Amino acid sequence: MTTDDAREPADDDGDAGGLGERERALLAVERRSWPGPGAKERAVREGLGLSPTRYYQLLNALLDDPRALAHDPVTVNRLRRVRAEKQGRR
Question: Looking at the predicted structure, is the pLDDT value of residue 62 above 80?
Answer without folding.
Answer: yes
